[in-house]
Amino acid sequence: MNIINLLKIALKALSNNKMRCFLTMLGIIIGVASVISMLAIGQGSKQSIKSSIAEMGSNMIMIMPGTQERGGVRQSGESQQTLKPIDFNTIKENTTKIQALSPTVNSSGQFINGANNYPSTVFGVNQDYLEIRKLTVEDGAMFSDRDILTATKVCIVGKTVTDNLFPDGESPIGKIIRFNKIPFTIVGTLKSKGYNSMGKDQDDVVLAPYTTVMKRILAIDYIQGIYASAITEDMTDDAITEITQLLRKNHKLKDEAEDDFTIRSQKELSSMMSSTSDMMTMLLACIAGISLLVGGIGIMNIMYVSVTERTREIGLRMSIGARGKDILSQFLIEAVIISVTGGIIGVILGAGSAFIIKFALNWPVIIEMYSVLLSFAVCTVTGIFFGWYPAKKASKLDPIEAIRYE
After folding, report:
1. How far is CA 43 from CA 256, 268, 379, in A?
2. Would you call 23 helix, strand, or coil by DSSP?
3. Are residues 137 and 32 in the same domain?
4. Domain boundary at 206, 230, 259, which?
5. How confident is the model over 95-136, as pLDDT tens digits?
6. Are residues 251 and 286 in the same domain?
């Protein structure tokens, strides 16, 4: 019996029980739709995290004071003074893998403009900080090298600070604001970046020369950190190795001594976040995949019922020349038709629900082709796997006993 005839027989048998056939497909439909929509949400979240990290500088390197042990008590890195301006100069003059470098110090407090005030943080940096953090001056200009050299009381402000200190919409350029009673002249404003994926307001920032913050606000002679940007993201690890060697030499650390500084990179953060996102995506897909398993069991159930109901039909077919493999093929084709049709409907439903989630809830959603192909392949294999045993049982029936079956 050729495949065309077997296909016609299978389609006719399924059309005789449309409702039962649809209910059998339902498990496959829900399973495939769930897998596709869950993977789309997972991939969208992963891409959103990567984009947010890229906006902060995907090749950014952060150098902070390390923890130290004194009298058996481990001290917090925040309380250490292991990074000095000379470390910044050493890295700047000797590194070959860094394209931008900025020392950082910061202080939190109240900014005041007349009757308006707003709590924020002033970051002491240099001009390279804009490139490292992917910030852009929208109005005015960045402070100059001379401002850094003379510790001038100037600053540039983010949109959130501007909106709160100048609610009437007037230009803040040239205006004087006070930070904890210290006057600062605004020389520029930053272009808005909004919130990042971690929910942090990237516009709630004030930048000033690092020497100004060190001398006039904090009264310290050390820096709280160094931000750097590798030439390319691929060179981040080499840059970290180079910086580590320079700082260890600068701090006169012996070979067996621990680093008295800590170096972290956005590449490391990106890898960790992507790994977590992938794990959550796979967890969601596995939970959704349970529906496929349930759908497969449903197919096997119905195929068993179908074999039992059509025992006499099987006996008649075999008595007029149908071979065991023809009966096997017929029931396998029925199982595959159910699973593949359910898979097609599931793909359409899954893609549709993903787009509804994207536009209704404004969630990042990306439908990858591999998720569609994988779901389709799984539902096909499910049909064959769960349809095999009932089909095999049907092919092994004795024709005489099958004809006598009541």
Report:
1. 43, 19, 21
2. helix
3. no
4. 259
5. 888 899 999 999 999 999 988 999 999 999 999 999 888 889
6. no
Q: Does a structural domain hold residue 267?
A: no
Higher pLDDT, 200 or 311: 200
Domain presence at residue 336 = yes
Both tokens of 307, joined, read 């074999």
Q: Give the total residue count for the chain.
A: 406
Strand partners, 100: 229
As a whole number of Å, the end-to-end CA separation of the chain is 27
Q: Are residues 14 and 104 in the same domain?
A: no
Chain position carrying tokens 């501007």: 162
pLDDT of 2 reads 65
Q: Quick check: 401 pLDDT over 70? A: no
| Residue in this structure with the two tokens 């596709």, named with its chain if needed | 36
Contacts for 269 with CB less than 8 Å, ≥ 6 apart: 53
Residues 22 and 85 in one domain: no
Beta strands in 18-163 (DSSP E): 60-65, 68-70, 73-75, 98-113, 116-125, 137-140, 154-157
Residue 19 in any domain: the answer is yes
Last residue of a domain, one of 209, 235, 259: 259
Find the domain containing 399 and state its range.
Answer: 3-52+272-404
d(CA 232, CA 218): 34
Split into its structural domains, the chain has a count of 2
Higher pLDDT, 398 or 283: 283
| Residue carrying the six token digits 């629900």 | 353
Distance CA(317)–CA(237), nearest Å, equals: 71
Residues 230 and 236: beta-carbon distance below 8 Å: yes
Q: What pairing do the DSSP bridges indicate for beta strands 116-125 and 206-209?
A: parallel
Q: Could you tell me the pLDDT band of residue 68, with boundaries at 50, 70 and 90?
A: low
Claim: this prediction has a pTM higher than 0.90: no
Q: Are residues 297 and 398 both part of a single domain?
A: yes
121 CB-near residues (< 8 Å, 6+ apart): 106, 107, 108, 109, 204, 205, 206
Of 34-48, 102-116, 278-292, the least confident: 278-292
Quote the CA–CA distance of 95 and 317 in Å, as a whole number: 83
SS3 171: coil
Cα separation of 169 and 338, whole Å?
A: 64
Q: Looking at the structure, tell me whether residues 155 and 205 fall in a common domain.
A: yes
Distance CA 153, CA 219 (A): 14
In a domain, 69, yes or no: no
Q: Are residues 162 and 245 in the same domain?
A: yes
Q: What are phi and psi of 83, to 5 degrees?
A: -105, 125
